[in-house]
Design goal:
Blueprint lengths: L4 H7 L8 E5 L6 H14 L7 E5 L11 H11 L6 E6 L7 H11 L2 E7 L7 H6 L4 E5 L5 H11 L8 H11 L12 H21 L7 H13 L4 E2 L1 H10 L6 H13 L3 E8 L4 E11 L2 H8 L6 H15 L3 E7 L2 E9 L2 E7 L6 H13 L6 E5 L7 E2 L2 E5 H6 L4
Parallel strand pairs: 1-4, 1-5, 2-3, 3-4, 7-9, 11-12, 12-14
Antiparallel strand pairs: 6-8, 7-8, 9-10, 10-11, 13-14
Helix pairs in contact: 3-4, 8-11, 8-12, 10-11
């Protein structure tokens, strides 16, 4: 296993702290591996193996645990002696009423609890009611570009290109699901694996979890989102699109489907932020997919929206680094991302190529209109365009993803 250092550093400081550690993320993004790394860490700390209770609800071994009472009794039966125990539960949302069990375990036993889930439903108000102030979330995403380089170096028995810019071309196409990079899969086979992951997330974390009946409509909503990565739109825009296709769809249905897709981490919603008014706007958001490989697996490889895909990759990197990410509105102009973390703020414009004067003007003009002292960047795939305009640098996207200055 390759240690995913970013998440290890976020999780390990909470070992033996009085919080339930809730690990969330899209299916197959690496939650189970992080639990295994935690288990290994506990063993290295001389915790007895029989004090570590591991339950994976995706395994048939635990399929009989289908009620809260059975869940509780299973845990209770594994607690012996007076030593502190450690409970590691994978895909906890598979058992209805699990919140009450976890709450009871905190009350009844000397136990440190870690749970994973592929749906943000596990952080719903019901959980907050039971565990108010007693849980922390560690959200995991698919591999970053930096992690992709590590995986390729270790697993594929191939020599990395001397140029990170060349390696980025592969990352752009194949995305960051860890399983894709544990063997030298062809693009065709990689997309088949990604499509199966996507289908599982759609079925188990949206359709079943939210009792969605019209699966065909849900998939068409997904395709609308994927076809509009990088564009602002609303639920009404989606409903109007279906209307133009002679299919009437209730607006609330669209809202419910978007919320279900967000809850499963298949898509992320990014609100717009008014730079002048300094307020978050509630209309015309942008939606980005949980990993760019899903777009290619579902829609095929098309480059007509390459700028939107690059935006998607940058947005995920900003979120991965702990930033709250917004789309900036400045008069009638747009700033692709305003990213805020505590007292930090950066502005980022993303485009494919700065080939035309009009493109350069479009990307730089909004940034140059902002007179604060926070860092500003224009990111693209240009390898030779290195101009710095009035203190706003151009950065190749591969270098931006690997940078440690933001």
């Amino acid at each position: 296993m390759i240690g995913r250092q970013l998440y290890i550093e976020r999780l390990f400081p909470f070992i033996d702290k009085p919080f339930v550690k809730v690990i969330t993320g899209l299916r197959r993004c690496g939650k189970s591996v992080l639990l295994m790394m935690l288990r290994n860490e506990l063993l290295e700390r001389k915790i007895a193996e029989d004090c570590i209770i591991y339950i994976n609800f995706e395994s048939f071994e635990h399929s009989e645990i289908d009620t809260p009472k059975k869940f509780y009794e299973t845990i209770k039966s594994k607690i012996t002696g007076t030593n502190k125990h450690y409970l590691l539960v994978d895909e906890v949302q598979e058992v209805e009423g699990w919140e009450k069990v976890i709450n009871s375990c905190m009350v009844d036993f000397d136990i440190d609890i870690y749970i994973t889930g592929s749906n943000s439903h596990i952080l719903s108000s019901e959980l907050a009611t039971f565990l108010a102030g007693r849980y922390v979330e560690i959200h995991i995403q698919t591999l970053s570009f930096n992690e992709y380089l590590q995986f390729k170096n270790v697993y594929n028995n191939s020599v990395l290109s001397e140029s990170n810019k060349t390696e980025f071309q592969s990352f752009l196409r194949l995305g960051g699901f860890p399983v894709i990079h544990t063997a030298p899969y062809s693009a065709e086979n990689a997309y088949k694996i990604v499509y199966d992951i996507y289908s599982s997330a759609i079925l188990r974390d949206t359709v079943q979890r939210h009792n969605i009946r019209d699966v065909e409509l849900l998939e068409r909503v997904v395709k609308f989102i994927l076809d509009n990565i990088g564009n602002c739109f609303s639920a009404k825009n989606i409903a109007d699109y279906f209307k133009s296709q002679y299919r009437k769809v209730d607006l609330n249905t669209i809202y419910n489907y978007l919320q279900a897709l967000e809850a499963a981490f298949i898509v992320y919603k990014t609100h717009r932020y008014d730079v002048v008014g300094k307020e978050i706007l509630k209309t015309q958001e942008k939606y980005y997919v949980g990993d760019q490989s899903i777009l290619y697996a579902v829609m095929g490889v098309k480059d007509r929206n390459i700028s939107g895909v690059l935006e998607n990759i940058v947005m995920l990197e900003l979120k991965r680094r702990g930033y709250a990410v917004y789309v900036g509105k400045l008069d009638k102009r747009e700033i692709d991302f305003i990213a805020i973390k505590q007292d930090k703020k950066i502005y980022v414009q993303v485009t494919y190529k700065l080939a035309e004067p009009a493109t350069i003007e479009r990307e730089y003009s909004p940034l140059l209109s902002i007179r604060d002292q926070y860092p500003k960047y224009v990111v693209s795939m240009d390898e030779t365009w290195n101009d710095n305009i009035e203190g706003v640098p151009h950065v190749h996207i591969a270098d931006f993803l690997l940078a440690n200055y933001y």
